[in-house]
Write a structure and sequence with these properties.
alpha+beta, 3 helices, two-stranded antiparallel sheet
Length: 150
């Protein structure tokens, strides 16, 4: 069917219903803005929950952190003391192995009455022997030994 509009141009309805198009576009834009607002609100709510959970986790781990800091300080103190002991051990000479080695060189008829250090590298030995032969044997062993040769 063919429609002929005989009304003057000013009284005629436009071919496109502009009011409806504006209403549809406005409604669609309003829906998009509402969805964007709702999506952003949900994201903010989710991030706030994550922040609260992170704060709770941090508060739960806080006592452990304090304990770890205290332990770290104690470990530093122990390490400093160990360094001091190591330095002292390196500076001081241990006479126990030397005296033990000296005891292996002695003969059964020699008795030490006094052992003392003269300086860092010297030891003073006073003792008695049954006879001069025992002393001679002991001195020969000392001269042949690599530790006491010097």
């Amino acid at each position: 069917m063919i429609r002929i509009n005989l009304l003057p141009k000013d009284d005629r309805q436009p071919e496109w219903p502009l009011k409806r198009i504006y209403a549809i576009i406005s409604g669609a834009l309003l829906v998009v803005l509402i969805l964007a607002f709702a999506g952003t609100t949900i994201q903010i709510w989710h991030k706030e929950r994550q922040i609260v959970e992170a704060r709770n986790q941090y508060e739960l781990l806080r006592p452990t952190e304090v304990i770890m800091q205290d332990t770290s300080l104690k470990q530093q103190t122990v390490n400093a003391k160990n360094n001091i002991l190591t330095n002292l051990t390196n500076e001081r000479k241990s006479w126990a192995p030397i005296i033990g080695h000296l005891a292996t060189l002695t003969t059964p008829r020699i008795w030490f009455t006094e052992l003392s250090t003269i300086n860092k590298d010297a030891i003073k030995v006073i003792g008695i022997a049954d006879n001069y032969q025992e002393i001679s044997t002991f001195l020969q062993r000392l001269e042949q030994d690599t530790i006491f040769a010097e």
